[in-house]
Amino acid sequence: MTAVEAPSALAEVERRISELLDAADAHTVHEAAQRACVGGKLLRPRLLIAAAGEDAPRDLVVRASAAIELIHAALLVHDDVIDHDDERRGEPTVASWAARGARSTGSSAGRAARIGLATAIVSGDVLLVRGVAELARLDLDDEPRRRVLTIVERAMVRAAEGEHDDVVLAGGSPHEEQIELLLERKTAEYSFRAPLELGAVIAGRPAEAVAALADVGLRMGVLYQLRDDVLGIFGDEAVTGKSALSDIRAGAPTLLATLASRDPAWQRVGGDYGDPAADAGAGSRIRHLMRASGALDEVERRIASGADALRTSIARLPVEQALRDELAGLLERCVERAR
């Protein structure tokens, strides 16, 4: 499965996702789960497909890719609940969509909100269990099956830790070491390292290649999240599909905020960072300071230097050139993207 064949493989992944979510009982929970899987970039399947290479059994690769995308969708649904977000990918979040539906049928505002939260939580659970079950059903020998499930277990535990720390550290003054660990747990482990490891294990690649791909995935995921954090403050809402005030109101613990908070002028605007009622004026003041303090430039510098180092590591990977080329291309998309 070369990079040229990836688009057709992704189409198969989307069909498999539809099959896994096509429940006979047209329950609202299943409809919500289906909505959560619409509009994604399919980044994790792309990584898994690339790491598997052209000789891996296509059915296994497609099914594993669909599974990891369902798990990703589950985490997004739960993340939106935790962050009280109303919009995802330019559309209402599952909780918001379900709450609006309840209001349209006569529920009070309070009851509608409760229904929205319940729908989001349980539909996320459905996505999660179906993703894990699909991985468990893969026709693999005992050892690779054990490795696949161990990889997913580790990634999910790390993601849970990262989600927890993201809330605990919000609005505070975390150290750079804490931010680095958060970047790895929150995003890099499950979104980059795990898909590359899964593809490599399914393909039967040697341990050296699996470990090298895992390292590349972790580092690429950190760069991806650094770019995401920049877009969360400076991105175009029409492109990102996310409010440019969301991270500001949440006091998101990012490297950008940590660096900006070292400037004495932060004392004048820091109170707006983490204020749920922060308005456009507050957002403008915070963005101005992040630029004036040099925080934005420093984050951009670290993204650029990290990408340079990673390009060298990718070029030295003990894998075929097609995979190195695919990873190099994905790296560029990660650090230069607008959404």
TrEMBL record:
Its cofactor is Mg(2+). Keywords: Magnesium, Metal-binding, Transferase. InterPro entries: Isoprenoid_synthase_dom_sf, Polyprenyl_synt, Polyprenyl_synt_CS. GO terms for biological process: isoprenoid biosynthetic process. GO terms for molecular function: metal ion binding; prenyltransferase activity. Pfam families: polyprenyl_synt. Belongs to the FPP/GGPP synthase family. This is Geranylgeranyl diphosphate synthase, type II.
